[in-house]
């Protein structure tokens, strides 16, 4: 039994062999370029891994700082909490914890009676609320409270009007915003809007609270 031996011509016609030979020749002629390309690829992969690890580490640090600040806030250590929230917001402003820290800075200032600072902090958070919306309505409520404290009842009323317009299924907060909004509308001489809010609130209440709302409505209507 004899074995057929491929001739040089047949070897050249073999597609796989031709590919291997061509690849070998290409590598030999372009080995420097290929080496540089491999180095660049390794650097790119290493850089991506480093950036990913840095983001993970930054997120963990942000969580730790925010958790510590929140613990101080809940324990009534307002000054300490505000300092920690400011540190978190300054270092991790682009992360969720940094954005939420801006909201709590506003709450700390509001508790401390610094209304202008509270408004500034709430606005700072609301600029990022599109990406981190959890405290959006609470921040708007805080701003309205601060404006009301500064006797800017008209601006406070406008915020509550916007809040009420955005309410969907949160009935508890709707009642609260209707009550606060009606008060700000009354104080800013928007009696028609105050009446409208109280009428909506009247439908949702019973007992003594309903009676008090009805009395306030009668006064506003004259």
Low-pLDDT stretches are: none
The secondary-structure class comes to mainly alpha
**Mean pLDDT, rounded to whole units?**
84
- Into which percent range does the helicity of residues fall? over 70%
For the secondary structure, the number of strands is 0
Number of distinct helices: 11
Q: Return the string of H and E elements.
A: HHHHHHHHHHH
What form results from the Cα inertia axes? elongated
Quote the beta fraction: under 5%
Gyration radius (Cα, Å) is 33 Å
Major sheet characteristics: none
Would you give an account of this structure?
By secondary structure, this protein is an all-alpha fold. The protein contains 11 helices and no strands. The mean pLDDT is 84.
Annotation keywords:
0% strand, elongated, 222 residues, mainly alpha
Draw up the topology in text.
Blueprint: H1 8-13, H2 15-29, H3 31-74, H4 78-91, H5 96-111, H6 115-126, H7 136-149, H8 153-166, H9 171-187, H10 191-202, H11 207-221
Helix pairs in contact: 3-4, 3-5, 4-5, 5-6, 5-7, 6-7, 7-8, 8-9, 9-10, 10-11
Question: What's the short version?
Answer:
With 222 residues, the chain is mainly alpha-helical. 81% of the residues lie in helices and 0% in strands. It has helices at residues 8-13, 15-29, 31-74, 78-91, 96-111, 115-126, 136-149, 153-166, 171-187, 191-202, 207-221.
